[in-house]
UniProtKB/TrEMBL annotation:
UniProt cross-references to PROSITE patterns, sorted A to Z: MFS (PS50850)
Keyword annotations of the record: Cell membrane, Membrane, Transmembrane, Transmembrane helix, Transport
The name this protein goes by in its record: Major Facilitator Superfamily protein
PANTHER family in alphabetical order: MULTIDRUG RESISTANCE PROTEIN MDTH, RESISTANCE PROTEIN MDTM, PUTATIVE-RELATED-RELATED
Source organism superkingdom: Bacteria
Annotated transmembrane regions: 21-43, 55-73, 80-99, 105-123, 144-166, 172-189, 220-242, 254-274, 281-301, 344-367, 373-393
Subcellular location field: Cell membrane
Membrane topology: Multi-pass membrane protein
Length: 437
């Protein structure tokens, strides 16, 4: 029987989190609390006199910039180091957010919105990679559950804070957004650079070429990315088709709001306790189980229209999110070859974003011609996603445990104050099995 230290509890993990990891977690929480731009951009621009189509295009520009930013962030973090990627990303996003309130010309708004989206997301591969490198292997899944808790708390409370700030001024809200980004950048300045230990450094003959083509040539990992894409297509139906289903079954829109709140409360309250047990599972089993439960939950919406069935279905796919996401978030950084961790993490986020983009259009189009077809189709897609995860995912190679620093923190064996990351063996959202963030 495995020793309890091989599967640390929530309390054990929190006690052993190193100072740099706490800086990352708190900095990201502060940043998410002030993440107003994407949520309120359309309202802000229409309030300033821009047309609704123009405001929609601006939001689209921000979205395109976000997708590009994740991929670019993966490359930059591998090449120049995680710390400076986070610093430049957050400081730049803060400055551009503050600049946006002074723009009155549409083309300038579009350009700045796209650039802000790019910079605002470029930090995510670097932050996830640092979590992996500064945390012992046995803590990876639990630390990513803590990371998701901070992310979800910020994402849940942020919009409410935004409403309060809007009552005073839209400009004030965006200035606060800018300040929270800069605060994260200042936190990141205190982070170490990450380096590869001598035994993990590849030789010139064995070192993989550092590009996204190398990631795509990893067939097993490509199957993992396929699973994430398919899962995202299914998961996003709770945003696109579920509200249509609720009203079509004769319920008030308030039921939909209750279901979303139920999901948020359960994830925030139960993900950490569940992860204590989920971390004992092989990575492929945890992810496949999570992806499968998301699909089963979506399929249960066929059994409506009783309110109880809507609640049960929501709880089932929420359970899938809780079970699969922490492991899927940690996995890319665990299996990445030296020097490619940032790209592996970014490559996992990309298919998810594509799934979130195409999923609503596919789901709504199918729902208009065959309402139950969306939920049955989700089951079929989920079966393929589960098989892809089981076939493609491999057991992560254990890395050297971070040694204790003189101050008692962990992670010192992997850091230095002077060198940039050169190939060490962490979004929205890292990878996620049905993650909303």
């Amino acid at each position: 029987m495995a020793n309890s230290t091989d599967h640390p509890s929530v309390v054990q993990t929190l006690r052993q989190i190193s100072r740099p990891v706490w800086l990352l977690l708190v900095g990201m929480l502060v940043n998410r609390l002030g993440n107003f731009l994407q949520i309120y951009l359309v309202l802000y621009l229409t309030q300033k006199g821009f047309s609704e189509p123009a405001a929609g295009i601006a939001l689209g520009a921000y979205g395109v910039g976000s997708v590009v930013g994740v991929l670019l962030g993966g490359t930059i973090s591998d090449r120049f180091g995680y710390r400076w990627t986070i610093v430049v990303s957050m400081a730049g996003a803060g400055l551009l957010t503050a600049l946006l309130v002074h723009l009155t010309v549409l083309w300038a708004v579009l350009a700045v919105a796209a650039a802000t989206g790019l910079l605002a997301q470029a930090y995510r591969p670097a932050s996830s990679a640092m979590l992996v490198e500064l945390t012992p292997d046995k803590h990876h899944v639990m630390v990513f559950a803590v990371y998701r808790l901070a992310f979800n708390l910020g994402t849940t409370a942020g919009p409410l804070l935004g409403v309060l700030l809007i009552s005073y001024s839209y400009d004030l809200m965006f200035y606060v957004d800018a300040i929270t980004s800069v605060v994260f950048a200042l936190f990141a300045l205190r982070l170490p650079h990450t380096v590869t230990s001598a035994k993990d450094e590849p030789t010139a003959d064995t070192a993989p070429r550092k590009s996204y083509l190398t990631v795509l040539s990893d067939r097993g990992y490509s199957l993992f990315m396929l699973a994430l894409f398919l899962n995202a297509v299914v998961y996003i139906q709770h945003v696109s088709v579920l509200p249509l289903q609720v009203t079509a079954d004769g319920h008030a829109p308030g039921l939909y709001a209750v279901l979303l709140s139920l999901n948020a409360v359960v994830v925030i309250a139960l993900e950490l306790p569940f992860t204590k047990f989920v971390q004992r599972l092989p990575a492929k089993i945890a992810v496949a189980l999570g992806v499968g439960l998301v699909g089963v939950g979506m399929n249960l919406y066929v059994a409506g229209p009783a309110i109880a069935m809507f609640v049960v279905a929501t709880l089932v796919w929420t359970l899938g999110e809780i079970i699969g996401t922490p492991t899927a978030s940690a996995y890319p950084g665990q299996v990445a070859p030296p020097g490619l961790r940032g790209r592996y993490i970014a490559a996992a986020a990309f298919p998810m974003q594509i799934g979130y983009a195409v999923g609503p259009a596919l789901g709504v189009a199918l729902w208009t011609v065959w309402k139950d077809g969306v939920w049955w189709g989700s089951s079929v897609i989920t079966v393929v996603a589960v098989v892809a995860a089981l076939v493609g995912m491999r057991r992560p190679t254990a890395s050297a445990e971070p040694e204790a620093a003189p101050d008692g923190s962990v992670g010192a064996a992997h850091v230095t104050s002077g060198e940039v990351a050169v190939g060490a063996p962490e979004s929205t959202s890292g990878a996620s099995a049905g993650a909303s963030g």
